[in-house]
Amino acid sequence: xxxxxxxxxxxxxxxxxxxxxxxxxxxxxxxxxxxxxxxxxxxxxxxxxxxxxxxxxxxxxxxxxxxxxxxxxxxxxxxxxxxxxxxxxxxxxxxxxxxxxxxxxxxxxxxxxxxxxxxxxxxxxxxxxxxxxxxxxxxxxxxxxxxxxxxxxxxxxxxxxxxxxxxxxxxxxxxxxxxxxxxxxxxxxxxxxxxxxxxxxxxx
Amino acid sequence: xxxxxxxxxxxxxxxxxxxxxxxxxxxxxxxxxxxxxxxxxxxxxxxxxxxxxxxxxxxxxxxxxxxxxxxxxxxxxxxxxxxxxxxxxxxxxxxxxxxxxxxxxxxxxxxxxxxxxxxxxxxxxxxxxxxxxxxxxxxxxxxxxxxxxxxxxxxxxxxxxxxxxxxxxxxxxxxxxxxxxxxxxxxxxxxxxxxxxxxxxxxxxxxxxxxxxxxxxxxxxxxxxxxxxxxxxxxxxxxxxxxxxxx
Lengths: 204, 247
Prior knowledge:
Chain A is α/β, with parallel strands linked by helices.
């Protein structure tokens, strides 16, 4: 059982409880840091997110957490974004109004075509290590209407809906990972995914 | 491709789960957490908790209940409705452990507030709950606080059609709790492009299968009828598992 300290960054725009419980059940020590020294002291951090991009970025900037996240990213320690948290890693978002993101990933957040909502359980087509664990029939829970558009060899999972095929669902490059779906709300598949991702990123 | 959802709906009154019938009679069942634990174990696709007395009592959302549910380690998507009066309430509901909020009385009382909630937490996190009925062949919206029927508001329909609200839970309130009685005609009033959840009087796998075949349906809510048998979720999903519904 790992006693690594995982921080779920608390910036007021996420459902922290669910993720916290899932990680604790996996045996991690979990905190919900919001101050710079708290974030720095974590072995790995999650950036959750429910809501709209501009409001979330505003919350990060007002609290100074955006600067803490940039420092953490440069430290090389594992950093994982979930849903809106993943999108915040982008250069920019076009949700509601053009808003700059954290610029950890060279990409932009745009609306799903035909103003679709992607809500519910959907398949993720994995490649890399996750492909060994999950077949294409495995489903995860999504809840979004914008997505991170990027061209990269580091897209390790893609999903599709009627209006758009193969948009990024899982990204991983060095110490940074992001998922468009909610693994903490994807029952067994989600727990397995989080467990294997954290083990890989923390070298546990 | 995206699956449709079998949704377990839990009606809560005075923080106790109840069997609700026709929006007027309630029989106590027990702690909501026990029902939720069962639904999660049986593999339901989503859980909606509706605290039906919070708006009327002006108590605000039941954040303690949501937190207790979240602390169970629930890994099934949770939506919550009941007592949400403002943006602050909606944000508190999300922070306490729900993925999405369900709005009912606020749509009628203050639609602008509901739209403000949509702007901040995102339309994908918002479900409109609309108890409907045909009164003298006209589709009417039931205001459960005032216990009266209103014309379906064009402003609410505009908000739905302009994607400020992602999904609409159509509740056949007159048949709620009654077997095999959900009226499909209630769905016809909404544009085909709308994302609808059917609830109220859905009690059999056959009904679920028929409703899941309707294009605008993204989910079917089943209330107390899911609690009668062990592994009822499997029975309700039937041979839709793996194709229309998740396995």
